[in-house]
Specification:
Elements (H helix, E strand, L loop, with lengths): L8 H9 L3 H21 L4 H18 L9 H22 L16 H23 L2 H10 L7 H8 L6 H13 L2 H10 L1
């Protein structure tokens, strides 16, 4: 099934899922500028930007068959590209070039990485503990809003049995309640 490159996104995704290479190329051509813009926003080198772009398209190939809402594809690509940029930047921040013959860098222990890892672990644990303090309905809503690729509100509404129009306000109340949990308040007290 050959699909025109200017076809609606739903048609392109459907054709790409069926193995149409022209549809796949049309999707890449359509959204490559979006990925490149995100890479530029993160100020990555050309080589790092190429790595991010390649990873985004690889992830899309891996998840294309499970994509149920083709209109969510731009958001999925945006989120995946941003996550890959941040992952690459974090990895680069943990490594630094050193010449063991001339630099004394290796003679000194670097506690920054361990401290950063510990802080990240404490934050994740506090978030898990805070989520556990929430009522199940609010916890479930927040967790569904964090799914990657993002779920459309219609699906969240169907899964939780709540009106689409109440998802945003309920999310705001759930986040406020999460910020007020003992776990997150304790994390804030430790940091100050």
């Amino acid at each position: 099934m050959l699909v025109d490159a200017s076809a609606p996104l739903t048609s392109l995704v459907s054709a790409a899922q069926e193995g149409d290479p022209h549809a796949w190329n049309a999707i890449v051509d359509r959204f490559l500028p979006l990925v490149e813009a995100i890479v530029r926003r993160h100020r990555l080198s050309e080589a790092d930007g190429d790595d991010v772009s390649q990873t985004v398209w690889l992830r899309l190939v891996e998840h294309l068959d499970s994509l149920r809402e083709p209109d969510a594809l731009p958001g999925w690509i945006r989120t995946t590209a941003r996550h890959e940029c941040l992952r690459l930047l974090a990895a680069r921040a943990r490594t630094r070039a050193a010449d063991p013959q001339t630099d004394g860098v290796l003679d000194v222990a670097d506690d920054d990485v361990a401290a950063d890892d510990l802080l990240a672990f404490e934050r994740h644990q506090a978030l898990r503990d805070g989520l556990a303090e929430l009522p199940a309905a609010r916890r479930d809503l927040l967790l569904l809003l964090l799914v990657d690729p993002p779920l459309p509100y219609a699906e969240i509404s169907a899964r939780l049995g709540i009106p689409i129009g109440s998802i945003g306000p309920t999310r705001a109340r759930a986040l406020e309640q999460l910020r007020a949990t003992r776990a997150l308040r304790a994390l804030g007290e430790v940091r100050t």
